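Handoff note, outgoing to incoming analyst
You'll be picking up this chain. Sequence as last confirmed:
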Amino acid sequence: MILVRARSGASLLALTLGLAACNNAGSGNGSVSNDAATAGNMAGAVYATWGVHNPPGVSNCGAPNCSYAGDPGRPPDPSYPPYWQSHWTMYRVFNYGTSLPPYAGPPPGLKPGQDYEISYGATYYDSTTTWPAGQGAMMEYYDKRCLPIFPGIPNTFTCAFISLGDTAYFLTYPQDRPKGMPPVCLFSPLNHPPRPDFITHLPYAKGDSAQLGGGAQAYSFWVGADGKPFQTGVRPDQTANQGVMFGYAFAPVNGKMQPQSFYFSGFPLDPPNAPFVSQNYSDWAPTKPDPAKTWNLVSNLDPKSLPQCNVMGAPDAQAQAMKSVKAGNKRPLSWFDIGKAGLKH
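Most recent structure output, in case you need it:
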């Protein structure tokens, strides 16, 4: 079973042809930096993920080894099966009032179009595959609306992230590719798929869990400019205090725990105007994705020859952002900014 939806006239053949030519992609309008795909320039592309997508040592953890296993009151951790795939509905919530995630469905009390935007995508996961860069594969496909975390970039385009072992790629598609972006760029040299037991790296959030009800188990925290978690659970809202939130929930379906939603802070200014984002899973199935329509799109590419992605900000932009924050500027943090001062690698 493969779950990618139809893509407005785009084809996998067209995408594959574009990827095959991507080694010659130019930097266009500055969306990428061609000289950054060397080992010496890649440090800026390692992002804090608190053990979820890379080793705990590259994040300012809030617990020893970024593990909350054994915390008092923590229920037994759910885990991913070896492989799975699922569609999801994404809610980009911009007028949220008191309606904070996690959401069991559409954000309660809010109106679509007026308070939030709906889009769709799919995730494909296989922890059993092995690649030159390490173990596991994952693809997240965003149809017509990309992940809204990039400062100053509208998310009105189709995109995908593919991780093969530690190497993560960012893909754009011909039908709506922003001017200057290449078909594929190197997102990070150290960003692997979550391990099946990844939830150990997030604290159990009792309030988030109760909000979903029905036996759900939710895990979340807020981090600040130093990248260190400072609050468990979404409430109270810390957006105005330069907080960035990261959460994940499981819920029982037919007696078995499975992914319910991935909820997090997007970039709150416009564009992309995304204080909160939630990807709510549907038709989740523990089946193997089709490599021809997922990993094989990038598996034959040499990551060393690819341009480094610049959607999260180039290293000089990162430095300017951190100076701005240290000077007391209230510019919201992006996922690229957080934790850079506290990296241990």
